[in-house]
Each structure stands twice: as C-alpha cells, then as structure tokens.
Design a protein that fits this description.
CATH topology: Aminopeptidase
CATH architecture: 3-Layer(aba) Sandwich
Number of domains: 1
Order of helices and strands: EHHEEEHEHEEEE
Largest sheet: 9 strands, mixed
Number of helices: 4
Radius of gyration: 15 Å
Oligomer: single chain
CATH class: Alpha Beta
Strand content: 25-35%
Helix content: 10-25%
Shape: globular
Length: 167
C-alpha cells in the first residue's frame, strides 16, 4: 500500500470509496465533493491509500477549521473500502495525515469519532483541552490531537469548514 496526495484523476474513485464506506448514507460522499469546492479545502491534506495495482482503497482529508478565530484542522471523513477493513489502511491514512499536518506547522487536529479507535493516535476528548464542539451532545466523541505547533492558550469554540454544517 502507498499513501500519497490526491490527484484529479482520483476524484471518482474517492467518491466511490467514501460512498462504500458509509453506505447506505450518501452524505459523506457528497460532503467530500462540497469540501473540495470550499475555501477550507487543503489539497496537501487530502490523501489516498492505493494498492499495488494503483487502485484507491482509502481516503482521508483535513480541512481548515477554527478554534474561535485561530486556524486549526478538522479531520474527516476517513474512508476505507469495506473489502480492505482491518488491514491497517485507516491507521496508515491517519498517521500520514497527522504527519503531514505537523510538517505544515498546524497546531491541532479535531475530529468526531470513536474514542476507542482514535485514542491510539493520541487523540483525547476535546474538553480536556478546553475546546468545545459545535454541538454539545458530541462531547463524548469529539476529540483533539495536538501537534508540535500547539500552545495551551488555544481554547474555545470549534468550527468546521462550512460544508460540515449541512451533514
């Protein structure tokens, strides 16, 4: 498996992977398309996993988000083709996007997801760092991973890129 940046030729394959990963809901596949058209889209942080034949088998993106007015990242969606689950594809994508974000001097990455899964990557519940989710009910699943550029003064209300508000 190889992890690399998304290229224009990957768009249809990414849409198919996201749709399969979140079936039967089409919301996440539509979200990725909307994010790609949003000013918060960060091409350097849209990564694909490809198998030895070059087939896209997974995708992850981080987009521009904010804690109050400070720029941070929102991770998601993370998608892996169902026939490649439990093979380390998702883990490889998360490690790669966190490394890329750190290399770009981003302070932190926020996501909504299963704490049992994301804890292995260093994510902690956001309330431990004083970061509030856009929906208070998300708190049990709303997580933050700090990066090298993080400072403890970075606290407040989190806001995703605008397309997330429609999911």
């Amino acid at each position: 498996m190889l992890i690399r940046r998304e290229i224009p030729a990957d768009v249809d394959a990414i849409r198919a992977v996201v749709a399969a990963a979140f079936a039967p809901s089409p919301a996440e596949a539509l979200l990725v398309d909307e994010l790609r058209a949003d000013p918060g889209w960060l091409p350097a942080l849209s990564l694909v996993a490809v198998d030895p034949a070059g087939t896209v088998i997974g995708h992850v993106a981080c987009t521009r988000a904010h804690v109050d007015d400070a720029p941070v990242l929102g991770l998601g969606p993370l998608s892996v083709r169902p026939d490649h689950h439990i093979r380390g594809v998702g883990s490889a994508l998360v490690h790669a996007v966190l490394g890329a974000a750190d290399a770009l001097s981003e302070p932190l990455v926020v996501l909504l997801g299963n704490p049992a899964y994301y804890h292995r990557f260093g994510f902690v519940l956001s309330d431990q760092l004083g970061i509030r989710p856009p929906v208070p009910g998300w708190q049990p699943h709303f997580q933050v991973r700090t990066l090298a550029a993080y400072t403890p003064a970075l606290r407040g209300d989190f806001t995703y890129a605008e397309p997330f508000s429609r999911v």
